[in-house]
Specification:
- One of its GO terms (biological process) is response to molecule of fungal origin.
- Its cofactor is L-ascorbate.
- Belongs to the iron/ascorbate-dependent oxidoreductase family.
- The chain is globular.
- It has a domain at about 40-105 and about 170-215 and about 220-365: B-lactam Antibiotic, Isopenicillin N Synthase, Chain (Jelly Rolls).
- By secondary structure, it is an alpha+beta fold.
- The chain is about 30% helix and about 20% strand.
- It has eleven helices and 15 strands.
- The strands form three sheets. An eight-stranded mixed sheet has the order 2-3-11-8-13-6-5-4. The protein has a five-stranded mixed sheet with strand order 1-10-9-12-7, with no helix packed on it. A two-stranded antiparallel sheet has the order 14-15.
- The longest helix is centred in the middle third of the chain and has 28 residues, at about 165-190.
- Helix 6 runs antiparallel to helix 7.
- The chain binds 2-oxoglutaric acid.
- 2-oxoglutaric acid (AKG) binds near residues 233, 240 and 312.
Length: about 375
């Protein structure tokens, strides 16, 4: 029997407060999404806006250490300056681990709600772990069709003590095996700007790691909903494992030129590629590079066929880090396009709003 929620509060309580999530709704045999999940037209993913998919070429990171070094650097820089997204292979993360991560995510979200609800905000045994649904449900008119668990990395001991049992070893291994790639990519991108950072400043800019697992259950009305709304990531660089279902779209072209209807936007799909990881630039690196690298707006569609999982690692500055355009780049550009902000304040402003494209960057913009 399809559930009926008499008012918005009962739906909100069921999904958000009691921790049943979207998965709980779907398990009840829902045949139509509740009104609270219906996106305004300009936030829906319209097939006419989709202009194809990223060329199915992944950058081979093993070549960074070989004779093709310069060419690989050019590919990384070009992708970061144009789309802000690219895919990599031979990244150092074992392929079996990628499979185990997807299996672990399905297993975690497949559990009864009571097992997941112990990690809800306010009751979770540690602020390092948070289970939830949508982005900031309290602030959103339309909710995202997504449940997630977020695990902040401080050290192995905390991770082993607080992260969910079935996730901790795979998630730790994912962070460990991807960290060399992350360091190399960031060093390459920062070095390409003519900037040299000492270890302490590099750590300040890149020292916080968060691993999320996203779960998108099948949705009866994919045309009306989104899995993740249009947004850019706040940090430096995101590493994303997606499964084979597809549905991740990136906005192409002038990121600030969107009109309010979204009619003139062009989105391209980042196609699932077996064994590859998706890399994208975050707002902090866009600010530090004075706008040279693009923190691309992206979003995820829903599907009525199967559940989708994705596992991003967000590599971000430390909360107290100062984020402003590098002096060397400003000297060359002759103008600073952003002001200096404290990363913690930036994220506070980011989290206060519902996801809405690149509006998060306004906080650091020079008016
Ligand atoms: O699921 C995806 O492919 C992307 C997820 C995402 O954009 C996010 O978690 O911020």
């Amino acid at each position: 029997m399809a559930p009926s929620f008499n008012d918005g509060d009962s739906l909100f309580n069921f999904v958000v407060k009691e921790g049943n999530g979207v998965k709980g709704l779907v398990d009840m045999g829902l045949t139509e999404v509740p009104g609270r999940y219906i996106q305004p037209p300009h936030h829906r993913i319209n097939n006419q806006q989709v202009a194809g998919s990223l060329e199915n070429v992944s950058i081979d990171l093993s070549e960074l250490d070989g004779p093709n070094h310069d060419q690989v650097v050019r590919s990384i820089v070009h992708a970061s300056e144009t789309l802000g997204f690219f895919q990599v292979v031979n990244h150092g993360v074992p392929l079996e681990l990628l499979e185990s991560l997807k299996v672990a995510a399905h297993k975690f979200f497949g559990q009864p709600a009571v097992k997941k609800a112990v990690y809800l905000k306010g009751v979770s045994p540690s602020p390092l772990v948070k289970y939830g649904t949508s982005f900031v449900p309290e602030n959103e008119k339309a909710l995202e069709w997504k449940d997630y668990i977020s695990m902040m990395y401080t050290n192995d001991v905390d991770a082993r003590e607080f992260w969910p049992n079935d996730l901790k070893e795979v998630a730790l291994e994912y962070i460990k095996t991807s960290s060399e790639m992350v360091q190399k990519l960031l060093q390459t991108l920062i070095g390409n700007l003519g900037v040299t950072l000492d270890d302490s400043r590099f750590n300040e800019l890149t020292g916080l790691t968060l691993v999320n697992m996203n779960f998108y259950p099948p949705c009866p009305n994919p045309d009306l909903t989104v899995g993740v709304g249009r947004h850019s990531d706040a940090g430096m660089l995101t590493v994303l494992l997606q499964d084979g279902i597809g549905g991740l779209y990136v906005k192409k072209g002038d990121q600030s030129a969107a009109d309010s209807t979204g009619d003139n936007e062009v989105w391209i799909e980042i196609p699932p590629a077996h064994g590859a990881l998706v890399i994208n630039i975050g707002d902090s690196l866009q600010i530090l590079s004075n706008g040279r690298y693009i923190s691309a707006e992206h979003r995820v569609r829903t599907t009525d066929i199967e559940s989708r999982v994705s596992v991003p690692i967000f590599n971000t500055p430390l909360p107290e880090a100062k984020i402003g355009p590098f002096a060397e780049v400003v000297a060359r550009d002759g103008v600073a396009r952003y002001k200096e902000v404290i990363y913690e304040e930036y994220t506070k402003s980011y989290l206060e709003k519902s996801l809405d494209g690149k509006k998060s960057l306004v906080f650091a913009s020079i008016i």
